[in-house]
Structures are given as structure tokens and as C-alpha cells.
Specification:
7 helices, Rossmann fold, OB fold (Dihydrolipoamide Acetyltransferase, E2P), 243 residues, alpha/beta, single chain
């Protein structure tokens, strides 16, 4: 099945990017986004980790595709497929240092694209990428300390709005910052104080003190609409009634 495979397209020619997105969507893949700069790709990959990175080598901006790949590989192990119009040996050797799964030469055709993606997906099924090491998370009274950029940073619990999970990643959302941790939502649930934090869905933990709206099937914090899982609804309502 391809509909479980999430792809981030990094291409500075938006016509090519849109064409890629359309063709891959037709093939059943889930396109997380199309970004045109390496810097955007790094941020996007931290917040919404893709399964495959489809990456143009000759990006405009301060960093090219190869440098973008190296930066992303600092915090996650991800299969890379390069898009390139260059066939020179020097570019190939530099790109090879990032251990890509495949190269697609421009101009590409749909059959070549389909076959390349199918081979990489098959590799993922037979040899999945190893799990990321769990980042350190320390809870102390009214704050947590998360390892970020090589040091432990303080994050006040009262500043957390909600936490969203995607596989083995958790994204902590505050009103001003976003932290992406390599850990499961179960780990977060076990470590955070239950007086204020509650799991309301398989993918969400919320800070109960930040709730703005509670509807029949969702709640809202700020402008974020968060679904309420059926198995969590009764517990949530009981907690609200006791506050």
C-alpha cells in the first residue's frame, strides 16, 4: 500500500513540484508538502517527518539539496531520492556521501517515477529505517527540560498548549515555539503531570488549562481543532466536570 507513505517534495521549480505532487497523488502517495528552499525543508521535516524525501539537488537559496540532506540527517534517518538535471561526476560523488536510495534524472517521466518509488518503498518494507534514539526528557515540578541543539532547554509546563504525535515523534506546541522530540506519545503521557495534561486522542495530549472549546467530537485550543477519540471522551468530560 502506498497511501501510508508520506513524501515531502523539495523542488524550487513550482511547476515541476506541482506536477510531481499530482503524479504521486495519482499513484496513491500522501504528499506532506512542496517546499522550494532547503531551509524550509529542514523545518518541515522536523515538524512533519516524511517517510521519503524527494529532493532537488540544485536548489536556489543559501543551501543546495545535498547540504539540505546532510542537515536533515543530523536529526533523522530518512530515505532520499534525488532529482537532478546534472550528470557530472563531481555532483554525483557529493550526493553519494548522503547515501541516497535513488536518483531521478530530469526531465522525468511518470513510469520512471513510479518504478523508482516502488523500489524504494519495497526497500523500506524489507529493510525499515532504524528507530531514532529517544531524546532526553526530564520533568521537574513546573517545567520540563528537553535536549535541543546539544543542550538541555527549559520549557515551562504552563506554556505547553498541546502535544501532537506522529509515529515515534512528538511535537510540543507552545504559543511561541515548537519542539520536536524523538519519543512516543506514551512516554510523554507517563512523564507529564496528570493534573493538567490528558490524552484525548491516539495522537494528542492537551493541557486542560488551555482549552477554549469542547464540542461533541473535537476540542479547540487557540485556532487548533483537535479530535476527541471515542475511548477518551468519557475521561475528558469527567475531568472537565471536576475542574
Amino acid at each position: 500500500m502506498t497511501d501510508d507513505i508520506k513524501i515531502l517534495i523539495v523542488e524550487d521549480d513550482m511547476i515541476i513540484g506541482a506536477n510531481l505532487s499530482m503524479q504521486l497523488t495519482d499513484l496513491g502517495y500522501d504528499i506532506l508538502g512542496i517546499v522550494s528552499r532547503g531551509e524550509e525543508a529542514i523545518v518541515h521535516a522536523k515538524i512533519y517527518p516524511p517517510d521519503i524525501l524527494l529532493l532537488d539537488i540544485n536548489l536556489k537559496g543559501s543551501i543546495n539539496g545535498i547540504e539540505t540532506a546532510k542537515a536533515i540527517q543530523q536529526f533523522m534517518d530518512i530515505p532520499i531520492i534525488y532529482l537532478t538535471a546534472n550528470n557530472d561526476e563531481l555532483t554525483f560523488e557529493k550526493a553519494r556521501e548522503t547515501h541516497p536510495r535513488a536518483f531521478i534524472t530530469k526531465p522525468f517521466n511518470k513510469l520512471n517515477l513510479q518504478r523508482t518509488l516502488a523500489l524504494v518503498v519495497e526497500q523500506l518494507k524489507n529493510h525499515p529505517t532504524p528507530p531514532q534514539s529517544v531524546q532526553t526528557l526530564e520533568v521537574l515540578y513546573d517545567r520540563i527540560f528537553v535536549r535541543h541543539n546539544g543542550k538541555m532547554e527549559k520549557l515551562l509546563l504552563n506554556d505547553i498548549l498541546y502535544i501532537e504525535a506522529d509515529r515515534n515523534y512528538c511535537t510540543i506546541i507552545t504559543s511561541t515555539e515548537i519542539f520536536v522530540l524523538t519519543c512516543t506519545l506514551k512516554t510523554m503521557e507517563d512523564k507529564l503531570p496528570k493534573a493538567d495534561f490528558l490524552r484525548v486522542h491516539r495522537s494528542f495530549i492537551v493541557n486542560l488549562t488551555k482549552l477554549d472549546v469542547i464540542a461533541d467530537a473535537h476540542l479547540e485550543i487557540g485556532r487548533k481543532v483537535i479530535p476527541i477519540g471515542k475511548s477518551h471522551k468519557e475521561v475528558l468530560l469527567n475531568r472537565i466536570h471536576t475542574i
